[in-house]
Design goal:
With 368 residues, the chain is α/β, with parallel strands linked by helices. It is built from 14 helices and 13 strands.
Length: 368
């Protein structure tokens, strides 16, 4: 029999988690698994493109009377589609699934752990800890994320499976030979400009140090958000307006990323950074902060370099080393592409999820 899976998420936007989910849904063996999706908020592109049973709840708050209607809608959908597993993403879907679980005793709940909890506060902690007892298991996207939630929330490590994010090789353009990459040299970052934890200001500070030594180097910021205006002002104040380009939101970043000589990540918190996987898949050497799951992606001196958070001078030195030493850069680029293809392929991710779903389906619905 097919295993019916419902993916419960806030919305299907252009974030890394949402894109990973869409890739997973498309990759499932439909002879064995039947995916369904429910969003708490209205969605557009990714929601519409999925030709599977779907539900949109128009959720507002857990303290409004409308939550009763949301629970009834979700419960009816689970019953009508004979859902066996509900996998949740983010806090509100996690709690909502736990609230309807008493009406569906045979349904297994799987929680997704995808960051280091930078969003946690007292209220969010309460939500998560209220929800956890209803869950059969959890999937973390890195060993670092697993260790964080085991320590922070007292989760049983045996209940937390690690499955790395995957990238669809079919969507990755061929790796450009080093000598064919964009001239002048381009150093770039892909980041969400709505989140201060991405510390894109450190990228600009690093760019100023590199520019002083190598005026020929150019810099690109791929991403958008409310911090963009502030970051553009920082670039102007540092005299970088002619060498830093803010590309905005780029739906398909890889055709640009493949031209990078170096891909940079400056975050103070990461679960498993999708941008790093994209850099590596394109054969781009990486310079990244050594936080969260980043050390599980970047092998020091093999596919790139890891630096402390906020260490702008050190980051600049590593970038300059890659730019100045072509033989090293080629070796890093080759190793990065090979690791992405071997350890972080979409096929590998989907296969591990399918094996996990089989085990969860065969287990008891709830293990407290």
């Amino acid at each position: 029999m097919k295993i019916n899976i419902l993916y419960l998420i806030m919305l299907l936007g252009d974030g890394g988690t949402e894109k990973q989910l869409v890739r997973l849904i498309h990759g499932l063996d439909t002879n064995r698994f039947a995916p369904h999706v429910c969003t708490l908020l209205p969605s557009e592109a990714h929601f519409d493109e999925l030709d599977i049973p779907k539900l949109e709840l128009r959720f507002t708050s857990f303290v409004r009377v409308s939550i009763v209607q949301n629970m009834l809608q979700l419960s009816r959908f689970i019953r009508e589609h004979d859902i066996h597993i509900v996998q949740t993403f983010f806090q509100d879907p996690c709690l909502l699934a736990a609230l309807v679980k008493p009406f569906h005793h045979r349904v297994r709940l799987v929680g997704s752990l995808r960051d280091m909890g930078f969003w946690r506060d007292r209220r969010e902690n309460m939500k998560m800890r209220l929800a956890y007892p209803a869950y059969t298991g959890f999937v973390a996207n890195s060993e670092a994320v697993k260790a964080h939630f085991v320590q922070a929330d007292g989760l049983d490590p045996q209940r937390v499976e690690v499955i790395y994010n995957g990238i669809d090789r079919a969507g990755v353009p061929p790796v450009l030979p080093w000598e064919e990459r964009q001239a002048p040299p381009l150093v770039g970052i892909v980041a969400n400009l709505n989140r201060r934890v991405k510390r894109v200001g450190d990228f600009l500070a690093m760019a100023a140090v590199v520019h002083a030594r190598r005026p020929d180097v150019r810099f690109a910021v791929l991403g958008d958000g409310w911090l963009r205006e502030q970051l553009e002002a920082q670039a102007r104040a540092a005299g970088l307006q002619d060498v830093v380009e803010f590309k905005g939101m780029v739906t398909e970043p890889l055709p640009l990323v493949r031209h990078f000589r170096v891909g940079v990540i400056t975050s103070e918190s990461e679960g498993l950074c999708n941008a790093i996987i994209e850099y590596m898949a394109c054969g781009v050497p990486v310079v990244a902060t050594g936080v969260g799951g980043n050390p599980e992606l970047v092998e020091e001196g093999v596919s790139g370099f890891l630096v402390p958070v906020g260490a702008v001078e050190t980051m600049a030195e590593k970038v300059l080393t890659i730019l100045d030493e072509s033989d090293l850069a080629r070796r890093l680029a080759h190793n990065a592409a090979a690791k992405a293809a071997g350890d972080f392929s979409l096929e590998r991710m989907v296969g591990k999820f399918q094996a996990y779903y089989q085990r969860i389906f065969a287990s008891s619905p709830c293990t407290k």
